Amino acid sequence: MDIIKSVIDIVKDVGPTVRKYVKYQFCHNDYVDQFVAVQKKLERQLKDVEAKLITELNQPGKKTTSQADNWQEEARKEIAIKVEDLTCRGGCFTYICSSRKLNKKTQALNEVICMQGENYTNNGWSLVIDDHSIEYRTTVFKEKQEQLKLRQKDIEAKLEAQRVQPGKIARKEVEDWMEKVGQQIAIKVEDLISQGECSPSPNLEKITEVLKQTFEQGEKYTNVDASLVVDNQSIEYCAPVFKEKQERLKHQKEHIEANLKTQCMPPRKIARKDVKEWLEKAGQQISIKVEDLINQEDCSPSITLRKNTEELKQMLDEGKEFTNAGVSLVIDDHSIRGVPLLVEECSGRDYVQKQILDCLKGDKVRRIAIWGMGGVGKTTIMKHVHNQLLKEQKFVKVIWVKVSKDFDIIVQQKREFDIPKFQRRIASSLELKLEPGDHENETKLAGLISQKLGQGNFVLILDDVWQQFCLEDAGIPNLDGNNGCKLVLTTRSQDVARAMECEVISVNPLPPEKASALFLEKVGSAVLSNGRIKGDIEPFFTKILQKCDGVPLAIVTVAKTMSRKLDPNLWKQAARKLSKFEGIVDRLKFSYECLESQCQECFLYCALYPEDYEISREELIECWIEEGFIYEEGETRDTMYCEGHVILEKLVDNCLLESVKNRERKDCVSMHDLFREMALDIRPQFLVKAGINLEKLPEEDEWSENLLKVSLMRNYITKIPSSMSSPKCPMLTTLLLSNNKISTIPEAFFEHLLGLKTLDLSNNYTLKVPSLSNLVGLKKLDLSKTSIAKLPQGLNMLTNLKYLGLGGRLSETCDELLQNLSKLQHLTIATEIKFKWRNIGNWGKLQNLEKLVFYGLHNLTAMFGGREAVAKLASLPAGTFSSVQCIGVCYCGDIKKLFSVRWLGYLQNLQTIDVRDCGHIEELIGFESEGGEKVTVFGERGAIAKSASLPAGTFSSIQRIRVSNVGDIKKLFSGRWLGYLQNLQTIDVRCCGNIEELIGSESEEGEKGTVFGERGAVAEWLGYLQNLQTIDVHCCGNIEELIVPKYEGGEKVMVFLEREAVDKSASLPAGTFSSIQGISVSDCGDIKKLFSGRWLGYLQNLQTIDVHCCGNIEELIGSESEEGEKGKVFGERGAVAESASLPAGTFSSIQRVRVSNYGHIEKLILI
């Protein structure tokens, strides 16, 4: 038992050891594998850490952390350990110990070294720190210093280049930077290291950072656009510069004044306004003293000097324009003194004219009244006096104001003179520039008028005064002093003449011998024999003359009526009719009764306008057409328009109307107040209260049942009362309410006016229109210049409309409206209406449309040129726009092109192009070529020769081209297009300040030639204009000559040229100019002559030459002798006597030569 017990004890003691041995024996190989795996893991970590360090150490100023260095060292040692070094060969116990050691080593590597390695390989763990070593910081410091030196040199070079400009110095911040750089570059690294008060490394880092900041601050000075200098504002610099500029301005001013004095030597020339303003301002600048600027207390002296020096510099720059050669510093003085009035000869009144002129030239009489009965010739006499005063230039201003009855107003049942209206008329004559509201301020306006008139002596002529008034209330200065100012008025009332304290000069009827002479002068040669009335007519002539009572208006009117009447029976009948009339007005009816019924109706219609109103010829004829006075079945509107002109000329020839021009120089007619009185007496069914300052509609009892026409135009009517019932006027055909201030019209107002054919509501800017569905008989409806926002109800039911004017700001398209207005002939669109072209086919319904006018469309840039419109051309019905004969565009400020040339195929019958007041237009017609190249026709650049792309017959129907107030256009069209304009009859160009050529050409080589332009006409094109009848050029200041040269083999051929014509007229096609009947030129300041006398053979049908306000013209027609010696025809020295050199028949067709406000012409004809 003891043995067993002993064995058991031994087993107990040896058992654990045996078990451990057995365990390690079995696990030893695994421990070896684990150790090797951990070593490989550590080896990978070491490589990653080394790679990461390489990347992080690339950053400047970085070094490895001590922990990272220690880890790498330890990792390398652990990787170098071999397994054999950790295992021992021997007994059991030794083997067990080796396994345990290997296991613990593996655990230690894994838990400590590898764990740290994982941290070091992590992206968020940095293995480097800033290198604060002196060696590194020293190197960095020196590098920064070197970079700063290089930047300093660059900026110094740029600064020197900019300081070359006069008056420039370095900016203070640049100077401060340069100074700071100099200090920092001078620092030595040894001085920083040797400083004992602090560690060298931090000190180096701090200074290095300062160098870096200074370098970056200098970067903005290296930019290309950076300015391193400023103006030198020191008094020491600014004062001499100011004096130098003053001296230069003084010399420039003296030079301009000398040129101005020379240019003002011709009569009726004054300095341009901008020249006067510049000279005045220059004088003020020259008078400034430097000391006064320096001693100013309220501002820095240097700032004041700099500011005034800059003003001097600006003045010098502005003055350069006035010193350029060829620049005109003067303008014609007619805008100040007045413009000559058109007037017929005044036979038998020489004594009265002399009496008036003597009073005006003397000092005793200040106020003169020309008194006489109506028609006796007071106005005609004063027009001649007016024009004579302009020629003599004794007075600074000669002002003509037409007064008439429309200046009479009713105030508290008493007739008084309308002072505000009179003031507005004078302000317009004086061309006063008024601020908004000045028209309504009677006191202020009186002051402005008085100030303007007080600038020099004047003559104020008031024609046809019917009511006395206070001159001072109107702003007329005192006429009783020694200022040389005079007042002349014409009146039929002696009471008015006395009340205004005037010296009365009577104008009596002509005595028999002068009355007879006037009658013979006007009756024409057909009824004369040796200057006397033919014998078989003479007895009746004497009776007729007696019935005229010596009144010139009656004499002239009757004489014109009897001209070309050779049958004595007609004279006998005229004498018998005149014997039945009593009074001058009744006797004027004789001329009316001799008219055809059509002319009578047209004449009576003129009475619907205000007294002495200047009626536009074009507007009047349009009204006659719409009234049905001119109508023939199947005739076009253009044909009727021509017939209207014939009727107008008959009325003018018979002296029933007077031909005049308005302020815009447009052709108008006016009606003598006696004829107007006669017309209203003939037609009592006319209710006319036009232009008499009405503020409300006539009372209901004035709207009688037999009324035919009512004219209330040009008043101040604001509304039609809702309480007013519809006038019961079943015969009323015409209602004219234009140019009022009407805002509303009651719905029921038109209820009983079912016979209306003409309704004019235009120029009522706040008008709202009621339903028009009852007025199905309307033929003319004018709503232009109104504020309607949508089309009036029932407008589409007015299927008889022939004339439609639309205005306002319509928010809807009118495409749908058009489909019902198939009879429409004239369409005026004066509205911001939208053209969507969605239903472009509706335009095809307007098969009778002949005239299309666009007025005041400021958002219109291309009417028929937009891509949307062009794209839909294919959808247009055949014949659309084929009836259109006239297209007009007025006051369309944004339009640049009228229509695309692709539209020309639809406008085959277009006869008239009329463009007015379109300041930005550059082309009338334009198109895009196949290659996308821009081609312009009637445009700024003329036209090119690719005419093959145009439709056949293009332009062949065009007869008239009118362009007025078109600021940007420089030429009308190229001479190459004249072949397409063979039927062109009229060229009318007015107030186009930039136009240089009417017709221009471009040669195949691209050389520019011009026709009717600044340099004249190329003769080869002129033969195409064989139907051209009229050339009108007005207010085109850049045109110097009408037609000029062609070059043939280097030799210059001149037509209508400054240097006259040469003998090569054979180069012109036969018939050139043969159709021209009139040439009219006005307000063309640079033109010097019209044409050479050698061209008169081509102007065989020329009847009138009219030249007005051309201040520099020297010759109308000039000639050149065979020896080259210059002679003048209708020129500065008159005409040469060698008339044999002129073509046969020269002057034979000329009926009238009229020259007014001429410049340098001294004589018309020299014998």
TrEMBL record:
Residue ranges of every copy of the NB-ARC domain listed in the record: 354-526
Entry's Gene Ontology molecular function annotations: ADP binding; ATP binding
SUPFAM superfamilies: L domain-like (SSF52058), P-loop containing nucleoside triphosphate hydrolases (SSF52540)
Annotated InterPro entries: Apaf_helical (IPR042197), Leu-rich_rpt (IPR001611), Leu-rich_rpt_typical-subtyp (IPR003591), LRR_dom_sf (IPR032675), NB-ARC (IPR002182), P-loop_NTPase (IPR027417), Plant_NBS-LRR (IPR050905), WH-like_DNA-bd_sf (IPR036388)
Keywords, sorted A to Z: ATP-binding, Coiled coil, Leucine-rich repeat, Nucleotide-binding, Plant defense, Repeat
UniProt domain Disease resistance protein winged helix: residue ranges: 608-679
Family annotation (PROSITE patterns): LRR
GO biological-process terms attached to the record: defense response
Protein name: NB-ARC domain-containing protein
Naturally occurring in which organism (per UniProt): Rubroshorea leprosula
